[in-house]
Amino acid sequence: MAKPVENSTASAQAKTVIEGRDVGKTFGGGAVIALEGANFTVAEGSFVSLVGPSGCGKSTLLRLIAGLIDRTSGSLTVHGRDITGPHTDVGMMFQRATLLEWRTAIENVLLPIEIQRSVTSADKARAAELLAMVGLKDFAFSFPSQLSGGMQQRVALARLLQTGADILLMDEPFGALDEFTRERLNLELMRIVSEVGATTLFVTHNILEAIFLADEVMVMTPRPGRLARMVHVPFARPRTPELTLTPEFNALVAEVRDILGTH
Ligand SMILES: Nc1ncnc2c1ncn2[C@@H]1O[C@H](COP(=O)(O)OP(=O)(O)O)[C@@H](O)[C@H]1O
Ligand SMILES: [Mg+2]
């Protein structure tokens, strides 16, 4: 069942990793309200999908959590610490893979480490392991131009995991890919994030996808941006695509559509 604005994700005993209280963000000296009065908690290891129409503040919320922009009101903590700027508890992934064309897949995966310190043989072994995990075992030495869009996003995912961040912020990461590739990557993403035990915030336009992947769906409504509801997704894991054909699944889809007013 949908619950009102004040919510917590997953079970009561799970540790809270992200907490927002009345989080607001305006741009242009208050002219644009991007987010207003957002109250939410995210439990450790949970998968939270964010859905809502364009401009409702999804990317703004992720950027606030990453500390890339400053909030204009409210409080926001990660692991109980106030967010005052960019920090290493989170890693982000976007619709475009933003790989360096002149570096091989494995060199791209190692880039975040290389920026911070010298790369060790253990880092290289981990990068190879992560490339295998995302299904690119045989493409470690390929250049981005030799990889499909889906494969490039796999590299970006491996690069994100290489940072060791335990909170993954994914802003429509597969949104530019064709439907088949996206579905396959979604299934693999579920396996991978459970394997590494990461907490994941995943923005998508697709309501079915949002529910299928998540433990909780943050349904956001526009103007001003605000978290309308946190909808709990009760289905057991591992999940298979057949789940989307069940009446229980479709009841939840209807509930989310109802909140969004998109029937
Ligand atoms: N840097 C910015 N300057 C001015 N307005 C912005 C900026 N970033 C976002 N906005 C505005 O804030 C609102 C929320 O944007 P965004 O978080 O990108 O929405 P979403 O990701 O849900 O599509 C939109 O009205 C958008 O135009
Ligand atoms: Mg966005």
Measured by DSSP, the beta-strand proportion falls in: 25-35%
What is the CATH class name of the largest domain? Alpha Beta
Spatial separation of the terminal alpha carbons: 18 Å
> Which CATH architecture of the largest domain would you pick?
3-Layer(aba) Sandwich
Describe this structure in words.
This protein is 33% helix and 25% strand. With 263 residues, it is of the alpha/beta class. A seven-stranded mixed beta sheet has the order 1-11-10-4-9-8-7, sandwiched between helices. The protein has a four-stranded antiparallel beta sheet with strand order 3-2-5-6, with helices on one face. The structure holds adenosine-5'-diphosphate and magnesium ion. Adenosine-5'-diphosphate is lined by residues 27-28, 32, 34, 52, 54-60, 225.
